[in-house]
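pinging the channel bc i need a second pair of eyes. not urgent but kinda urgent?? the chain im working w is below, pasted from the shared doc
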Amino acid sequence: MWHASVSYHGRLVLPDTGQRFADPRREHALAMLRNVGDRDAGEWVEANENAYHLRRRLTATETGSLTVRDIRRTPEAATRLKILPRQVREMIPDFIIADEVTSGPARE
């Protein structure tokens, strides 16, 4: 699955005027996934005040003979986090690390 996440520093607050505003993070996420994946096979959006997530299924060509495994909340996720350069780790908000690496049941 392709996954694009866009977040701005701090929280996105749009004026509450009763009008619908386009979420600028959406355009960034769509640009990141341009020309990849199969929208018709499945695409999901999760948006909140912290981030905009766009997930899209792989095409048959992209999948090939891959074996896909979700490593969130597993020892492998923690290992991968530890080997990231310090400067990259420091850019990851705590709530993301808590959700993707350390909280909840393991997905093994």
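so The first helix runs from residue 24 to 32. and The longest strand covers residues 2-6. — does that match what u expected or am i reading it wrong
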